[in-house]
Amino acid sequence: MSGITIILATPDGAKFRTALMIAATSAVLGDAARIFFSEAAVALLGVPPADPADEWYASEGLPTLDLLYEEALDAGVALIACQSGLALIGLDAERLDPRIEAGGLLGALAADRGARLMAL
Length: 120
What we know:
With 120 residues, this protein is α/β, with parallel strands linked by helices. It is 38% helix and 21% strand.
């Protein structure tokens, strides 16, 4: 099985939305998919996902960020919070959604060494 690993480098809602769509689509197609939230990007995981553009998306009949988040997890997308990032922003891994794992970049990349790699 092929896979994809997406590295989310910044706490940007639009990039989070894109990462979720790519990963969920890959998972639905049968590929392993994971998103690694690097350093400051882990801040996206500390609260229910929301994006200022959610209202606009919803008004056009498109899914909000929290719905994309749930769909991605339901499709089997692995979400990995950078341990260094958690320490940098003072977020305890115990406060994360239990479906999110804490880990490092090495582990995220080693999980599927043949995976396509994308950074956003």
